[in-house]
Every structure is written in C-alpha cells, then in structure tokens.
Amino acid sequence: MAGASDIEWTEATWNPIAGCTILSPGCTNCYAQRLAARLQAMGSLKYQGTTRKSGRRHVWTGRVNIDQAALEAPLKWRRPLRIFVNSMSDLFQDEVPFELIAKIWAVMKETHWHTYQILTKRPERMRDVVSRLDDYLPNIWLGTSVENASYLDRINVLRSVPAQIRFVSFEPLIGPVVPVDLTDIHWAIVGGESGPGARPIDRQWVETIQDTCRAQNVPFFFKQWGGSRKGKAGRLLGGRTWDEYPISTISAA
Ligand code: SF4
Q: Which of 39, 84, 121 has the most ligand 1 atoms within 8 A of CB, as the residue to mutate?
C-alpha cells in the first residue's frame, strides 16, 4: 500500500532513505527532523541514529539509513500516483552515494506509470548526479526549495538540470523573494512554515510571487499559510484555493 500523504501537492510519499543534515535557514524547524526523532524514540529501525538530543531539541546527526524494503515499494503500487520522493530527507545530500541514487532512478524508470516529485536544497549535486545518469525520464519532476532571496541562485542551477518539469517550492517562505526569474521553471509552490516556533509569512510576499507566476505563465500552487495552528490559518488566498499544476499532470495523475 502506498504511503498516503497529506501534503497538498502530492498523493503519496516514498522514503527509501532516512536522515539528513541542516543546510540553510529553511531547515531550522525541519518537520522531518522532528518526526524522525519521534519515530526513533518509538524504536523504528529505519530512523535509528538519525537524530540526537541537543538542549531541548532533537537534531539530525548526519547519519543516513537506507531502507532496503522501501526501495522497491513503488513496483507494488499499481495505480498511477504522484509520489514525493524522500519527504523525510534530501536525496541529493553528499551522504547519499551515487550508486544508491542510480538504483532509485532505476525503480522510477521501471514504474513509468507513476509521476515522481523530487525536491532538494542541493541543486548543484542534483545537476551533477542527473548528468551522470543515462536516462532522461519524463515521469520525474525535479525541484528546489527557496526560503528567501538569499537562495534564489538555486533556481539558476535548477534551470540547467535536464527535466521535463522543473519546479520551485517557496516553502517555508520566511522572506521576500522578488524579483524572481522563473524562465524554464514549470511550477511554483508557496507555503508558510508550520509547527512549533513557526516563522510568520507575509501576505505580500505570497501575492508578489503569484503575480510573478501570472506574468511568466507559471502554474501557481498555494499550499498553506502555516503557523502554529496551520489548520486554522488554512490555505485560502483571495478567497479561494490555488491548486494549479504543470500541464503534464493532467494525463499523469
Ligand atoms: S534539507 Fe529538507 S529534510 Fe534536510 S534538514 Fe533541510 S528541511 Fe530537513
């Protein structure tokens, strides 16, 4: 059975690896880090050693565990799904060997009926790894996260990665990011941070990205306002939801 997801822009998650390292301010309140600590405390072997206590928080140790059983899970999911790969980690961190990424690529190739969404804060390694892989796979969407204007250069790197769909996730949006050039970007997601200690999002930051998407003809997906009570804050913008997708998803989903 697929790992059903409540992340608004996907249908399932697939986590063949567990564990990560903090990279930039967008990682500070990493949801995966909190959840991994909980799962580790509950005795989950997959997450053993991936987090440690630091003061009142749990933080990544930098250890990455491979879940061999999960590796081939999509083969058993017969219904076509949009699958977020490694929602609990970053596939392109240096600790994940090229050979393992190549195995994951092979599974995605074999399961051509699924659409895979891969998001990284390390687009340079994504570019290096993808250029070493033989296959250009139309069912893989490649994206990067940008939390504020200091990380806009990730989009420039993403532009040079071969992919049918390139996307940017402006989440958690913790600062303004405009002006932003979305040339050769096919989808933009925007969302505020949620959970304990969530940093506030500004409506104007969101609206300006939306205007940019409109002007540059990029589908716009507004995920959430976030905050410590994200359900209450909801995901309406201008009185409605914005769930636009790249065109190719119409046939893929
Ligand atoms: S890259 Fe993603 S999973 Fe890794 S620490 Fe940062 S937010 Fe968490």
A: 121
